[in-house]
Model the fold of this input.
Amino acid sequence: MKKHLDKFFIYLEVEKNYSPHTTLNYRIDLEEFAKFLSVVASPEGAKQSLSINDVGYPDLRRFLAQLKGRNLKPRTVSRKLSSLRSFFKFLQREGVIQSNPAKLLVTPKLDKPLPHFMSEEEAVQLIESPKSGKINSPRDKAIFEILYSTGIRVSELVGLNVDDVDFIGNIIKVMGKGKKERMVPIGDQALNVLKDYLDGRKVNNKFVFVNKGGTRLSDRSVRNIINKYISEQAMAQHVTPHMFRHSFATHLLNHGADLRSVQELLGHVNLSTTQIYTHLTTDKLKKVYDQSHPRA
Done:
């Protein structure tokens, strides 16, 4: 089992270009399954050890029953089932198994939670909260401006290098999920704030956003920066870096952007991922209806 898992993880990293975080989740899920196989109960109750070639659909059902017995969240169970499907599909492709027993597994239906977002007023309040005169204010304001202007993920933000910013073409190059590069438009206001920050800082290296030691800022640091200003502004809503992304998409749609364009800007592979934001624009639709329908 171990040699098959090792080959699978190499496949995820090299061929699929999965992030270390995603690969780690697969590893956790599949090592848990390997542990289950090492001492699995037969239908008659006898303890036995199964090799990967002997695994059938009933064994996967017993593993699923064990997961449900632990009262795991449906989303967690769904992720583990996805890991199993990918693993067995890989084994079949490699000729290790003849048929894929995971093909018949049914994923539990998941409710898509509506993403939380800031109002336009809250976004402006937070972006303008770093006050001039403080040592980190230019950096912090640039972080807020770029997150809201581009809708990029916090991992994409902290991964930015100076060479990734095209100040003339108003474009930044980001490394997204699956190590896929994409070009993202950025507004003049965000670019001007970023230029002021870069021109004024004492550190001269390739990283755009740095900490006091001059090394690249981390995801956690950005969260801490946001929390600091939320506390100072006494804002009622808890804001995460990802809420800038949600707000970016929602505000674009509210102002007439089409879904396909927002999909491209966010770097979503599937339109269905972007469609969740349409649920957040109900108020706008009601206004359009009231203004446009003769019998409204």
In short: The mean pLDDT is 86. Residues 63 and 69 are 10 Å apart (CA to CA).
